[in-house]
Amino acid sequence: MSQKFQEIINSDRPVLIDFFATWCQPCKVQSSVLNTVKENVGEGARIIKVDVDQYPTLASQYGVRGVPTLAIFKNGELLWKESGVHDVNTLTQLLKQYA
């Protein structure tokens, strides 16, 4: 996953990573928000989900201490990262800003 993850975040379009856990109720809320964000940004950005229980090393590498944690990468650079549930408008604007 680490090699594949590097390829994904090295994209020249923004990539939103959703660090989540299957047992996390706020993560389920965030997931439905991300479906709408994807519709809003279309091909302008990618949205990838990373299960922190399946990939604890990756979560640790990026300082994920709680879920959900969202991070935006472009060209391998971390541009934005925050924990907690975020709304459609905020995430849409962030991705369009970095596009």
Task: Describe the secondary structure blueprint for this structure.
Layout: H1 2-9, E1 15-20, H2 25-41, E2 46-51, H3 56-61, E3 69-74, E4 77-83, H4 88-98
Parallel strand pairs: 1-2
Antiparallel strand pairs: 1-3, 3-4
Helix pairs in contact: 2-4
Which stretches of 5+ consecutive residues score pLDDT under 50?
A: none
- Shape verdict: globular
Domains, number: 1
CATH C-level label: Alpha Beta
The CATH level-2 architecture is identified as 3-Layer(aba) Sandwich
Range of strand content: 25-35%
Q: Which value, in Å, is the CA radius of gyration?
A: 12 Å
Helix-and-strand structural type: alpha+beta
Mean pLDDT equals 97
State the helix count.
Answer: 4
Number of strands: 4
Largest β-sheet summary? 4 strands, mixed
CATH names the topology as: Glutaredoxin
**Which percent bin holds the helix content?**
40-55%
